[in-house]
């Protein structure tokens, strides 16, 4: 039986910007759900973790499918949550970390990167920027992007909006980074730009 009470499912494809055809296409899938912990000071947020785990694969696959991708073809991705006024930012955290892992991890594709995320407290029509990061390298020199999403009639005070965004290919590493890449784990490595670009 599903742990999530879903009111609405949406998908969104971001318009191409001035980067032209070389710019990755971006898409997001969103779910508007009832927050089972709204208005409560619950010590146990495990139900939110179960909902996050349930939605991870579904939203990841929906976002990938709208771009015509399989899960292992996703180049980069991210996740975000908007909590309604009767909820807490802690409720977003319980869903996003570590349960909502993104399409590549959820479907056993090779992935070693942390999944970037964002959370916000707000009302109807609140906009949130979903951060997008490479799925296979954690590096200071990598390029992070974002995709702004919103649901005009959500979240109501008792709801949460969950979003997973993906791109159809990797984001190009910034030229300013050069060949030196500093890992989030403090290991300095020299990785050729061609190798950074070729990670799948």
CA-atom Rg in angstroms: 17 Å
How far is the first residue's CA from the last residue's CA? 35 Å
What is the helix fraction of residues, given as a range? 10-25%
**CATH-derived topology:** 60s Ribosomal Protein L30, Chain: A
Task: Explain the overall architecture.
This protein is of the alpha+beta class and 200 residues long. It has one domain: 2-Layer Sandwich (60s Ribosomal Protein L30, Chain: A). It is 20% helix and 28% strand. The chain contains four helices and nine strands; from the N terminus they run ββαβααββββββα. Strands 1, 2, 3, 4, 5, 6 and 7 form a seven-stranded mixed beta sheet that branches. A two-stranded antiparallel sheet has the order 8-9. Strand 8 and strand 9 (188-190) form a beta hairpin. The longest helix has 21 residues, at 46-66. It starts with 5 loop residues before the first strand and ends with a helix. The model is unreliable at 101-112 and 182-200 (pLDDT under 50).
Keywords:
disordered C terminus; alpha+beta; 60s Ribosomal Protein L30, Chain: A; seven-stranded mixed sheet; two-stranded antiparallel ribbon; globular
């Amino acid at each position: 039986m599903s742990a999530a009470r879903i009111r609405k499912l949406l998908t969104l494809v971001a318009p191409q910007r001035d980067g032209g055809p070389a710019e990755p296409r971006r898409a997001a899938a969103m779910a508007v759900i009832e927050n089972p912990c709204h208005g409560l000071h619950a010590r146990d947020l495990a139900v939110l973790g179960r909902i996050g785990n349930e939605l991870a694969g579904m939203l990841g696959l929906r976002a990938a499918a709208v771009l015509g991708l399989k899960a292992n073809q996703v180049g980069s991705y991210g996740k975000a949550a908007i909590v309604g006024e009767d909820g807490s930012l802690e409720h977003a955290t319980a869903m996003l970390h570590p349960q909502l892992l993104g399409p590549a991890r959820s479907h056993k594709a090779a992935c070693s990167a942390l999944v970037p995320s964002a959370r916000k407290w707000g009302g109807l029509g609140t906009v949130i920027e979903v951060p997008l990061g490479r799925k296979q390298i954690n590096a200071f020199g990598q390029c992070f992007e974002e995709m702004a999403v919103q649901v005009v009639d959500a979240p109501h005070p008792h709801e949460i909006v969950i979003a997973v965004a993906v791109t159809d290919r990797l984001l190009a590493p910034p030229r300013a980074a050069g060949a030196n890449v500093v890992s989030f784990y403090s290991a300095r490595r020299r990785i050729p730009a061609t190798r950074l670009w070729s990670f799948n």
